[in-house]
Amino acid sequence: MEDCIFCKIIKGEIPADKVYEDDRVLAFLDISPINKGHILVVPKEHFENLLETPDELVEKLVLAGKKIGLAVREVVRAEGINVGINNGSAAGQVVFHTHIHIIPRFSDDGYKLWGSDKKYELGEGRELAQKIQEQLNN
Ligand code: AMP
Ligand code: ZN
Predict the structure, then answer these.
(1) Which atom of ligand 1 is nearest to the CA of 101?
(2) Cβ neighbours of residue 118 under 8 Å, at least 6 residues apart?
(3) 80-84 and 18-21: which strand pairing?
(4) What pLDDT does residue 42 have?
(5) What spacing in Å lies between the alpha carbon of 6 and ligand 1's midpoint?
(6) Could you give the residue ranges of the DSSP H alpha helices within the chain?
(7) Taking the C-alpha atoms of 65, 68, 69 and 70 in order, what is their torsion angle to the nearest 10 degrees?
(8) Which of 3, 94, 100 maximizes ligand 1 atoms within 8 Å of its Cβ, making it the mutation to test the pocket?
(9) Domain count, the chain
(10) CA-CA-CA-CA torsion for 54, 59, 61, 63, nearest 10 degrees?
(11) 110: left (phi over 0), alpha (psi -120 to 50) or beta
(12) Any catalytic annotation for residue 97?
């Protein structure tokens, strides 16, 4: 993936402040942090997003993310950690190489994740849940 910025970081073609590396996974500081210590955990192999990433690699990414989250929480004394993955541009994905955001949070940091006033009509939720359940069983 010649144009992928994270592939370039993995190949050492552009710099990054690395915090963790093993044979399959690399983690480095996000260049534009929500809070200081915001980290991206990426597979060394290019996949577009989580939904395209093989299960065994997802396991490794999530386990690395947890370990890194514990370390970041300690170092920046975070009160909480958001772990997030954007999949698709409609979901806010900008870099199309799978990555997990590990974001240290503080109760007074003013960052709002999301809120909603949407509601299901009577019976709508159950119908939708059934459809998803059927899709999962396909
Ligand atoms: P997303 O919106 O989930 O695709 O997030 C992409 C993230 O990559 C953003 O938070 C950017 O700040 C971050 N980012 C983009 N380029 C770099 C880079 N060269 N080094 C570190 N982080 C980057
Ligand atoms: Zn890539």
Answers:
(1) 3
(2) none
(3) unpaired
(4) 98
(5) 8
(6) 5-11, 55-76, 124-137
(7) 130
(8) 94
(9) 1
(10) 180
(11) left
(12) no
Q: What is the CATH number of the domain that holds 101?
A: 3.30.428.10
Identify the residue whose tokens are 């592939």. Answer: 7
Domain that holds residue 41: 5-137
Question: pLDDT tens track of the chain, all 138 residues?
Answer: 779 999 999 999 999 999 999 999 999 999 999 999 999 999 999 999 999 999 999 999 999 999 999 999 999 999 999 999 999 999 999 999 999 999 999 999 999 888 899 999 999 999 999 999 999 998
Question: Atom of ligand 1 at shortest distance to CA of 5?
Answer: 19
Q: What is the pLDDT of residue 113?
A: 83
Query: Which protein residues touch ligand 1 with a CB less than 6 Å away?
Result: 5, 16, 30-32, 40, 86, 92-95
- Here the tokens at position 134 are 């059927």
